[in-house]
Structures are given as C-alpha cells and as structure tokens.
Amino acid sequence: xxxxxxxTAKRRGPLPPGGLRRRLVIAFVLVAAVSAGILAVASYxxxxxxxxxxSLTASAVQAREDLNLAATITYPVAAxxxxxxxxxxxxWSWLAGCRNRPVNSTCxxxxxxxSTT
Length: 117
What we know:
Oligomer: single chain
Helix content: 55-70%
Structural class: mainly alpha
Distance between the termini: 127 Å
Number of helices: 3
Largest sheet: none
Order of helices and strands: HHH
Number of strands: 0
C-alpha cells in the first residue's frame, strides 16, 4: 500500500457544500441559453427566407396574369384617324420646319418658323 501525503488527502476530501451543484446549474443555464439563442436565430432566418420567397412567387404570378390580360386587350381603330398624318395636312405644314431643330428651340407657330429662317 502506498502512503498518501497530507496534501493529497486534503485534496480528496469531501467537496464543499454547493460548489459542484452551483457549477452544474450555471453550465446547464448557459447551455440552455445558447441553445435557445441558436434556435431563435435559425427560426428567424428560415421564416424570413420563406416569406421573401412567398412574396416573390406571388408577385411573379400577379405579373404573369397582368401580362396575359394586357395581351388580350384590343383597341378599335377610329375611322377618322386612320391614315391621318400631320405633315400631309396643309394646316400642319409649319411642323416640317421643326423637324431638324434642337430640342430646346421654340417651334410653336408658323410665325416662329418664318422669323428664324
């Protein structure tokens, strides 16, 4: 048999009351808090992704329906305007002078054209 020193015997003595229990409670609370935090973050990310995907899908369906509806709309051609061109009409002949002018120039009447040319 081996002899134990006084120091070793003192170390292996009974645990102080509450020491191990306190550490176990703290460890358990920390594990529970970390687990709850990870679960909350993962749930938030999954729900956010699902909501975004749902809204994108709904928007795509709505846009497809709107485009299909727009493709079926037809407008009747008015008989009085078919073939009408402003430059062929003599009352609109002053527009011919505005064709090659800068955008910011004024071309609002026949008198404006005659004064600048």
